[in-house]
Design brief:
about 375 residues, alpha/beta, Immunoglobulin-like, Rossmann fold, 2 domains, five-stranded parallel beta sheet, 14 strands
Amino acid sequence: MSRRTIVIAAALGAILLIAAPASAWVLPSAHPMPDGLERPVIRSVELSTPKAHNNLLEADLVIRAKTDKGIRRYEYRWNGGTIGSIHRTPVTNPVVSYATILPNTRYGLQVRAVDRFGWTSEWFDVWTGFTPSVPNIIVAGDSVASGYTRQWFTGDATCRDQSYAYGASVVSSVANTLPDAWYPTYVNVAWPGAGVGAMVNGGSDSCSDHYAPQILEIEKYADPDTWNVVVITAGINSTNWVDVVMELTKDTTLSFTASGDQEACRRAVNEKWNIQRSAESISQHANRIVTDLDRTTNASIYWTSYYSIVGSRFAPAWSPVGDECTGEMEAAMGRLHTALRTGIGDGATWVDLSDVEVGIQKWAGWPHPNPDGHRAIGEAIADAITG
């Protein structure tokens, strides 16, 4: 072909390209592969805000994609000042993790699909904005949760101390599993004497302070744009537990034999404790709590059982609930825990403390946890949260 012919052909080609409609020369979204297949194509991606079912620092991706041979996985990267590292997530229930980046910081998120041949889609720009704040841990419930302490009957009690309460141990134990930048915040809205009804309606503690409903306090502190964990210990004060404790303490003081202690336990626990009559109300209020929090927050809820106090020492050589009371106490607490679990259903994760060795205060602080007891409870709850 002559040089003149080549020049004329090139000119004609340029004219045809300019004259053709745009639809005739825009590249297709799926580029043909050498074997005739197509790369996967992502049509849309949505990054969800944290939800109750998410693990800490994880959030859902909602992805719509097209491929003719199946997508094996998705990959994503966070881009800040530079292009970020590539992370993988499964096709089923894909999630992203914020663990490699910082809270309250501007990033961009990109996602791509990888098919079974290893072909990738183009990077899809999903989101640009500021990452969530650090997670919130909110503790609620009664005196076990509030950090109640009292040494002598003649002295004042400390009704609320969140740094002493098991919540502090929950936070430090959870933080040990997270990057330093994501150390959680912590607030404690529990108060002594609160039952499940008081959590809904409010009330007063043994220090004569009045409180609003705890569910409203939880809603106030929960941040819908980040992860919220609510831990609750409540239920026993919705029974006549205080009367039972007084009965046990009085009667075992006057008993000097194991059989006498066993009889005192039988009378106080089996005859005086109104758990069975209170069970329906406890279930209803527990259900109200988890239902309301599910409706108004994105919090994941963890509800603890009560620990065993059998054999714990009120004074150095005296236990109001000795080993001879094991059967009665286990049966009674079983009825209380059944009422609570019936109420919470699938709305909360049950944290069983029955096998956790909880150290207990002596004298006027009995049977509340001592520092070792709070630490043990907190670590058990943290295991449930992070496990």
